[in-house]
Design brief:
The chain is of the alpha/beta class.
Length: 203
């Protein structure tokens, strides 16, 4: 990636066509939207919260087979990034130490650069995220996991560095918390804050 130009980074907020529960169809849609964004010059392509599964899966999201299909789909999306130099951020559930987390996954050059877990779960708009997800605050600092066939860092406060800029991630309603994660990310050196967000269709 190039350096910031006059303090700006060309970023795309992509909203692909999502099919509830069809992870592989969603991966294809995400890859297509990423290709369009990269062709337009985007250096970062930000996708919605839980876009690999959709945010309207209900109890399906707790099924091990479904979570494995999601992981396989993320592997396909990661592989697609080997053909360009943009950073993709996609939302997906991630199982770590027998708990499920609502995560943003950073992909670049065919690799999973890191997984950021949501720590402030939503109970607004009819959501009850704690029914399905654990808070990322339970993940110890410096943790790593194997996901989609790759070993990578997982946690809440990850800061990602490129040759030209640094960035951090908060997810969805975390932005409206009294002490938003963006504050600690910026204090830790993040120049950009990305926020993948989605509200379930039934909310």
């Amino acid at each position: 990636l190039g350096n910031m130009k006059f303090g700006f980074v060309k970023t795309a907020a992509a909203v692909p066509q999502i099919t509830v529960g069809d992870c592989h169809a969603n991966a294809e849609s995400i890859i297509s939207a990423a290709e369009d964004s990269v062709a337009a010059g985007a250096e970062i392509v930000l996708f919605p919260e839980l876009c690999v599964t959709s945010s309207t899966c209900g109890d399906l999201i707790g099924q091990p087979f479904f979570i494995q299909q999601c992981e396989n789909a993320v592997a396909d999306i990661a592989a697609s990034t080997a053909s360009h130099n943009a950073i993709l951020v996609v939302g997906a559930p991630v199982c770590y130490r027998n708990s499920l987390y609502n995560c943003a996954i950073v992909l670049h050059n065919g690799r999973i650069a890191g997984i950021v877990a949501k720590s402030i779960l939503s109970n607004r708009y009819g959501d009850n995220e704690s029914r399905h997800f654990a808070s990322g605050s339970a993940i110890p600092y410096g943790s790593c996991t194997t996901f989609a066939g790759q070993e990578t860092a997982i946690g809440t406060g990850l800061i990602f560095s490129t040759p030209g800029f640094t960035f951090g991630i908060e997810i969805g309603n975390e932005a409206s918390a009294p002490l938003a994660p963006a504050t600690t990310r910026a204090t830790a050196g993040a120049e950009l804050i990305l926020n993948p967000s989605a509200i379930g269709e039934t909310s």
